[in-house]
Amino acid sequence: MPGLVSATGVLGFLADEEHDLKVFALQTLNDDIDTVWTEVAGALSQIEALYEDESFPQRQLAALVLAKVYYHLQAYNESMTFALAAGDLFKLDAPGEFEDTIISKCIDQYIATSSAKHTAPTLSQSDNSLPALATTFATGPADGSALISPTTPFSQTTLPSKSLLSRVSTDNAILDPTFQPVKEGRSGSIAPINDQATQAALQRIVERLFEACLKDGRYRQVVGIAVEAKNLEVLRRVIKRASDDEKRSKTKSTDGQGPAEELMEYALSICMDIVQERAFRTEILRLILDLLNDIPNPDYFAIAKCVVYLSSDEEASRMLKQLITTGDRNSIANAYQIAFDLYDNGTQEFLGKIINSLPSGEPAKAPASDATEDEPLLENQEPSGEELSDELSKVYKNIRSILDGSKTIQLNLEFLYRNNRTDLSILNKVRDSLEGRNSIFHTAVTFCNAFMNQGTTNDKFFRDNLEWLGKAVNWSKFTATAALGVIHRGNLTQSRKLLEPYLPRQSGLSSGSIFSQGGALYAYGLIHANHGADALDYLKIQFTSAEEEVIQHGGALGLGIAGMGTGSEEIFDNLRTVLFTDSALNGEAVGLAMGLIMLGTGNVRALEDMITYAHETTHEKIVRGLAIGMALIMFGRQEGADAMIEGLLNDPDPTLRYGGIMTVALAYCGTGSNKAIRKLLHIAVSDVNDDVRRVAVMSLGFILFRKPGSVPRMVELLSESYNPHVRYGSAMALGISCAGTGLDEAIDLLEPMMKDPTDFVRQGALISLAMIMIQQNEVMNPKVAAIRKTLKKVVGDRHEDAMTKFGASLALGIIDAGGRNCTIGLQTQTGNLNMAGIVGMAVFTQYWYWFPFTHFLSLAFSPTSIIGLDHDLEIPSFKFHCATRPSLFDYPPEQEVKAEEGPTMVATAVLSTTAQAKRRAQKKERAQRRESMDIDSSAKPTVSDKMEVDEKKEESKDKKEGEGGEKEASVAPADTKKKVEKEKVGYEMENLSRVVPGQLKFISFPTGRYKP
């Protein structure tokens, strides 16, 4: 039957008194609405009247027709409302654009409604996290008046409407805790639903959608919607349903993970990689942790991830005890690996709590009377009696050595010592090119040596160049002594012995220059970086007893590095006492150290003291140290730091605004947060102070280091700014975010900046290129050879500026860091933030103001090793297979040192006329020889044709052989190159070898005695 051509006649039935005719009209219109909707649009009021008439029997049909007409009119909110009112007549499974659009709209509406309900309590919680700093916005929602308050959290503000940056971005809007959709008049925006019946209908539609997905086993779709809607109850229900379905159909879980475990892994990955709001992420992780603990054989590594993020030391301790008590080798191996992961990702404070809650490593024989209580747990091991106690005590001792970091530090030290490939010829060239009497050049060579030999314990360069070392004076001497701490980083057992000649002495005897003593305390902290257990007491004594400001400066830096993240109130109070003496020389280091001690704690009392003193003091160095220190205290706090950020950014003092930008960088590091990026970009182009603009652009690197590919596009225009500070900031942002990636887009932006007219921009470009090219060889990135050549050329160029030479020297040290066995790692292998690495990089960027801070970059160097251990935590000798060509990930070739040639005879000059005469003579001689050969051949006519042919063959053969010999001589090098290129794919590597991050996917373990 053909459809309607015109709806005029059918529409007339709508005015009839008979309900049957009205129903017939609606059914007819519903069937052909796509054709006649333009005519039906004029009768909307009539159809709406039918829908509102409670006596009309087909109100749902009227609602469906209205929904379709409004859909064609692109009034999607009204269309969705009437589609919900249509009840079961709206078919979810019907294929069509109308159905798909309305379902999509329903899901968006559900997400907006559900997340709005969840957001309110979260905001109040985050506001209460900083009671002393939250002032005007501490109570209630952000209304119009709060938006103009000078201390409003920037997550709740909007930028001036004239700025392009103020346009509301809906990218990842659902993940932004305070995102509120713009209530525009157009029908496409999401409008609030006030009608209870419509809300109930929306809930029913969404439940029907969920049920359809769950029946088909499409659990991930429901998980995604639940996370976006911030509805944890739905998330719990989906995972439970997947677990129940798995139990019903046992075939699904016969191989590997079941649907429930896969779903939890998926939810965990979403939570860690996508969800930006810290409070909501914590809620999801707690839910996942509860669900994981309900599984009989849970994924302990997933639990460890949750535990680290939640800082739940009790849960971590319980898990380790549970694994160790199980007693089998596999469980103990898992416990060891989890302990390594906890050390890589946890703070000293967190790890200290776990260690304190574990039994000591001494054999425990006292609780024999409680054997009956413990019997069910240990019944499998009961026959071994006292042997079991010894075995368990050994395991606990090993666990404690892993958690306190001593095992990891020892293994890394062994790896760097064994595989050291430092090229001393490069160091010697840098030393010879830079005049040692000039302090900036002496310092540059010191840093180059420190970075190249970081952690290798190889201080040969210093020992071989004592005369050059003796040229160091004052702060150059401080820096050179501190470099020993970088070189011997992790050498815990020998640290005191190595630095003994330089450390301050208590007996009153002089131990040399105060700069050497201060540098030695700084070095002592660097050796014990993020592992202060054995060093803090000594450093506290030296710091409190020091009277010279230089020694206090070094002691404060050493205390901060060794006590990083301990949250020690005692050390903080000692530092504050020295700060209040108002000395500019040590105040900067003390302010920084206060932040390092309270790293990531968000301690309100500490922040109050620091910001109050920053406003009172007149010393810019102290204000800067405190500003960086406050940023460190807010490390990883995300929206919890918004209050302080906005307060600092509105401060008239540019140094405190600088600190506000650093707080944004560290609070939101690695999150890729849109609101943080918008804020930084706005300040980068609007602040009146060059330092603030520079650090705003640079901070983009910290926010986006997990998405390095997006940074070149973002800073492309900024790298061509008229302002050299903005250009420098964009160069450093590329280096920080793309470190170790060899990213071509970043290199393409940095190469022109090496020729920038401003010296410090060239410096930043060279340093950033080294960061990006670290551990790259010519096979991985062909540009690396040219960049290395440029760095050496800049260092040796007499006409180059000192700043640029300094940058090139640092770059040569960075590109070969740790004996060519380290990369710059701002995140751990498990994907969490590398706290020490990020802090090291952040403080390193302050070398702009104070060169000794450059040593902090060594904290960001991560050894790229693969280390297999046995059950006794010893390093067994075994090999693993790498399925690539050896040259692909090989070390870069060492620099060729040309042997000095003796004096040679001066070549005799040859005039052009003489050369022409010689050529003419040779030509004449060849012509005569040809004539004589013709005469000889014609004088022997008796020779047969065959002989002539043979002669010619032999002659041509000889000729070919001669030519071949010449060709062979010239082509020989090319042949050898071809032979090198034809490498065998796949080779064996020893345990404790260098494996760069890109190489890991090619590594496999052959079947044998040892299994990973």
Question: How would you portray this structure in words?
Answer:
The chain has 1012 residues and is mostly helical. Among the domains are: 1-66, no CATH class; 422-563; 865-892 and 980-1012, no CATH class. 60% of the residues lie in helices and 2% in strands. It is built from 47 helices and 7 strands. Strands 5-4-7 form a 3-stranded antiparallel β-sheet, with no helix packed on it. Helix 7 (97-128) packs across helix 9, helix 29 (549-562) runs parallel beside helix 31 (584-597) and helix 39 (724-737) packs antiparallel against helix 40. It is globular and about 120 Å long. The chain starts with 7 loop residues before the first helix and ends in an 8-residue tail after the last strand.
Number of separate strands: 7
- Rg, rounded, reads 37 Å
Q: Order of strands across the widest beta sheet?
A: 5-4-7
Structural class: mainly alpha
Beta-strand percent range: under 5%
Tertiary shape: globular
Please report the distance between the alpha carbons of the first and last residues: 71 Å
- Averaging pLDDT over every residue, what do you get? 79
Proportion of helical residues: 55-70%
- Summed up, the helix count is 47
